[in-house]
Amino acid sequence: MIQVYRLFKYFGPSIAIRDLNLRVREGEFVFLTGPSGAGKTTLLRLIFGAERPTSGHIIINGVNLSRISRLKLDLLRRKIGFVFQDFKLLSKKTVFENVALALEVTGERPGLIRKKTRQTLRLVGLAEKEKAYPLQLSGGEQQRIAIARALVKDPLILLADEPTGNLDPDLTKDIMILFRSIHIKGTTVVVATHSRELLEDTAQRTVFLHQGKITGEK
Amino acid sequence: MTLRLLPYFFKQALNNISNNRLVHVISLGTTVVSLLIFGTFLLLFVNLSTWIHGWGQAMSMNVYLKDDISESDRAKISAFIQDLPTAKIERFISKQQALRDLKSALGNHAGVLEGLSGNPLPASFEVVFTNLEDQKKDLLGIKQALEKMAGIAEIQYSEEWLHQFEGLISIIRLVGFIIGGLLCIAILFIVTNTIKLTIYSRREEIEILKLVGATDWFVKIPFLLEGMIQGLLSGAFALLMLYLGYSLFSAKKMQLLGFAGFSFTFIPAEYAISIVLISLILGLLGCFIAVGRFFEV
């Protein structure tokens, strides 16, 4: 599903990713971990096409990201759900509108948008708060809006960047249960985290990053 | 897909305008003023052209006859003029009538003519031309044809004035183009910057839209509609204000100001539509420029 070959990414003189090779199979659940500055976020952004690699190749579902047009990249992003570390929610839009946005851009019928948005909000436990605005909700609830927005389009791949970074242990557990339920349905999930608690009781594949390089796997 | 999204795009465009009301009001105001200046110039140009055209239509030619002209030659000249489709003999001025006219024109100074041994003034035909616009190129031809006829002493018509008339119209047209061009650039600049400001106010939303898979056009279309709406409103408001201004200086008021005899008309419908269309196109063009460099997410 995701293949990364000899990937390098420089930001000016500093190197963020160096000679990285990674393969994630379809339906796999992978944790990317490492200290701050290890390159976890950069790797996710590169896989998502939000950054261009300095050299190397990223192949998503058979499509080489360095060889596709902007339009095809836009269309590919519709198959990838991304949960951002800072949520990236629109404060002037309601919970419902924030989630529905991911379907509106695809030109889906309004009736179907309403139906799928409500279904997804039920899945993440926010059905009662669809008319609220993000800033009226807690950090955990905002995180769940971001997850709902990533899930509403039934993505092939779900990328999550520190999805539990701002949450207490109970909420962290809830979010991880949610990710596992999505994974069980067949979605490939890649979660970047530096949380030891999250990794201690997991049997999932874990990839260790340090200074832009893979240093080990569990 | 695009048709289904049209209501969404319009809603977005109207939301953009509503969320950036102040910027849009200022932009609309300055665009309206620019279009109003252009419209006023157009209104003056149209009326000036009409007035000059009207004067041109009343243009006359004086055909002076030799003193010893025979009756048959005079009849031939008269027939030649009457055969011209756009010419009309206003009157025949005999030698005696010419002298009477001169005495009347001199008024109290008519005494200066008393020392004359005879009547030095020639008889003449006063010819009036209609539809000068079509005929002005033929006037010289008519003059040359008449000069070849027997019994003609001299022919006078306002050749110089005619050239000046053409020159004046050309200068006004040129100035109009320059002013119009400069105002178009100013409007383009205003619209571009207004849309840039609304894009800037929505940059976070644009980034998120792009990250959830929106195509460039999905993001651009509401801004283009916004520019079109602004262009349309500016054009319509400018036209409305121009009409109100015109109504204030209607024909009656022109007479009161001492411009009796001039009919002051509003710009023709095609010019009015052009103002709105130009404004619409400038709005759209300004948006294209503004959105061009905002899609590198």
Primary descriptors:
heterodimer; A: 218 residues; alpha/beta; six-stranded mixed sheet; four-stranded antiparallel sheet; 7 helices; 34% helix; B: 297 residues; alpha+beta; Alpha-Beta Plaits; 2 domains; 11 helices
Provide the structure class of chain A: alpha/beta
Oligomer: heterodimer
**Tally of DSSP helical segments of chain A:** 7
Bin the strand percentage of chain A: 25-35%
| Shape summary of chain B | rod-shaped
The largest beta-sheet of chain B arranges its strands as: 2-3-1-4
Query: Mean pLDDT of chain B, as a whole number?
Result: 82
What is the total tally of β strands of chain B?
4
Q: What low-confidence regions of chain B span 5 or more consecutive residues with pLDDT below 50?
A: none
Element pattern of chain B in H and E: HHEHEHEHHEHHHHH
State mean pLDDT of chain A (0 to 100 scale): 90
Look at the helices and sheets of chain B and give the structural class.
Answer: alpha+beta
How many H/I helices of chain B? 11
Main sheet attributes: strand count, strand direction, barrel closure of chain B: 4 strands, antiparallel
What order do the SSEs of chain A take from the amino end to the carboxyl end, as H and E? EEEHEEHEHHHEHEHEE
User: Can you tell me the overall shape of chain A?
Assistant: globular
Main sheet record of chain A = 6 strands, mixed
Can you walk me through this structure?
The complex is a heterodimer of chains A (218) and B (297). In chain A, the strands form 2 sheets. Chain A has a 6-stranded mixed β-sheet, with helices on both faces. A 4-stranded antiparallel β-sheet of chain A has the order 2-1-4-5, with helices on one face. With 218 residues, chain A is an alpha/beta fold. In chain A, α3 crosses α4 and α3 packs parallel to α5. Chain A has 7 helices and 10 strands. In chain A, α6 links the parallel β7 and β8. Chain A is globular. Chain B has 297 residues and is α+β, with helices and mostly antiparallel strands. Chain B folds into 2 domains: 185 residues, no CATH class; 100 residues, Alpha-Beta Plaits, CATH 3.30.70.3040. Helices cover 70% and strands 8% of the residues of chain B. Chain B is built from 11 helices and 4 strands, in the order ααβαβαβααβααααα. In chain B, strands 2-3-1-4 form a 4-stranded antiparallel β-sheet. In chain B, α2 packs antiparallel against α7 and α7 packs parallel to α11. The longest helix of chain B has 43 residues. In chain B, 26% of the residues are buried. The chains are: A alpha/beta (218), B alpha+beta (297). At the A-B interface, α2 and α3 of A face α1 and α8 of B.
